[in-house]
Amino acid sequence: MKFLHAADLHLDRSFEGLIDVADSFQPYLLQANQQMLTNLVDTAIQETVDFVLLAGDTFHQNRPTLKTQRYFFSEMERLHQAGIPVFMNFGNHDYYQAERYWFTFPDNVVLFTKETVETKRFTTRTGEAVAISSFSFQHPTIEQELLPQFPVKSSEAFHIGMYHGGQMPYAPFTVAKLIEKGYDYWALGHIHVPQILSEQPWIVYPGTPQGHTQKETQLSGVQLVEKRDGLVKVRSIPIAEVQWKKQQVSLARVRNNPQLFQAVREQVQFSQPTLLQIELTDGEALGSELRYQVTSGELRMVLQEELPEQIFLWQLTLTDTLEEQPYLAVDEALVKQLLTTYEEPQVFQELLQELDQNPIIHPLLTQQFKQEVIEELGQTLKESYRFRKSVPSDETNN
Questions:
Q1: Both 171 and 229 in a single domain?
Q2: What distance in Å separates the CA atoms of residue 142 and residue 171, rounded to the nearest whole number?
Q3: Which Gene3D superfamilies match (predicted)?
Q4: Closest C-alpha to 63, from 33, 93, 104
Q5: Do 61 and 37 lie in a common domain?
Q6: Of 41, 148, 152, 272, whose CB is crowded by the most CB atoms within 10 A?
Q7: Quick check: 143 and 92 in contact, CB under 8 A?
Q8: CATH code at 21?
């Protein structure tokens, strides 16, 4: 016997925290939720599962758009044509209200619609008996514990508990009480980060299969559960259409600004549509200019044009090992003019008058030495301070 356990699809949910999304990447975001559902159905058919469990929050709201409803029902019909039943409950986001659905659920979709526990029984194509106990939200919250309503396993049927919730005010439970029921598998929903609470029996949060925020990066997809020779095995199958990734890009071999673009192209390679956060490291050779361009946002926008269309660079950060340079409210040109003044022999001699009178040091104060001192001073000032032209105008007014 094999079945898929999925939860928290959140169809209709938009991607959060994104600004200035590249036009070429917009279609990937618009199609991501639908394609995720298609990937789920494809997986169920390819794995020839006996049934599918949808453990709540299939939709992001309890009034799904008609477009999303139509697409969902068409995908459920594909499972119907493949002879695969679907057992579905409703969570705190898509809490059940019958009048919100404008299309008829296909005959293969078995719904749990009450806030009281029901048990559905059926037999697989291979003759194995299965019992599924579950409930649904009819309101945004359920504060009481519903576990007492779940029957204790009392037959040879493979017994599954399908439960959306976990903590107050969303149908709280404890793992110990789940185990007491004697079930063979607990199909949980509500928590978006994949978690295995127990392996004897399996008590599993599959997590959301498609991350919609930068925090939803730890995805496992859907769980393929297989019972063979009395043993239950579980493995994850990813179905996300768009992935969130964070990658460090080392600039250790970069010696000038143009080389940075090549370093990014070489180190960033994703074939799947990707929402990417790049963290630049080892950028000391590029100095304060790198920090400025990262902070201003200009470098992120230019790098976006260097990347393939299936990658959207939504954030660019810098691991800054350089100390922040103090700001001098003068033009760099004025500093150069002052240094030129010190190149005049009389001025330089007055500056080093005491040293010049030392008979041992005097022979060392050649014109070449003076020139080297001036150049070294200029370089030190340039590396140690920011000048007026190097910072945004609003900073100079602080």
A1: yes
A2: 5
A3: 3.60.21.10
A4: 93
A5: yes
A6: 41
A7: no
A8: 3.60.21.10
Residues 279 and 247: beta-carbon distance below 8 Å: yes
Task: Among 318, 336, 368, identify where a domain stops.
Answer: 318
Question: Concatenated DSSP letters for 355-366?
Answer: HHT-TTTGGG--
Cα 33 from Cα 38, distance rounded (Å): 9
What is the spatial distance between Cα 134 and Cα 5, in angstroms, rounded to a whole number? 14
Specify whether 61 is located in the same domain as 179.
Answer: yes
Q: According to the model, what pLDDT value does residue 349 have? A: 66
Question: If we measure between CA atoms, which residue out of 85, 84, 83, 76 comes closest to residue 103?
Answer: 76
Q: Total structural domains in the chain?
A: 3
Query: Three-state DSSP class for 231?
Result: strand
pLDDT at 131: 98
> Splitting the chain (398 residues) into consecutive groups of 10 residues, what average pLDDT does each group show?
98 93 94 98 99 98 96 98 98 96 96 98 96 98 96 95 95 96 98 96 98 91 96 97 95 93 94 96 89 93 95 92 58 73 66 66 67 71 61 44
Q: What does the block give as tokens for 162?
A: 């399908």
Residues 181 and 301 in one domain: no
What pairs with residue 318 in β-bridges? Answer: 280
- What H or E segment, with its residue span, contains residue 33? helix 26-46
**CA–CA gap between residue 224 and residue 14 (Å, rounded):** 27
Q: In this structure, are 231 and 264 located in the same domain?
A: no
Domain of 274 in residue numbering reads as 243-318
* Residue 226: C-alpha distances to residues 32, 223, 229 (Å): 28, 10, 10
Burial of 313 (0-12, 13-18, 19+ CB in 10 A): buried
Does residue 396 belong to any structural domain of this protein?
Answer: no
The Cα 31–Cα 341 span in angstroms is 66
Same domain, residue pair 75 and 163: yes
The answer to whether residue 337 is domain-embedded is yes
The per-residue pLDDT for 13 is 96
Q: Where are the beta strands (DSSP E) in 103-241?
A: 109-111, 118-123, 129-134, 158-164, 185-189, 195-199, 202-205, 222-228, 231-237
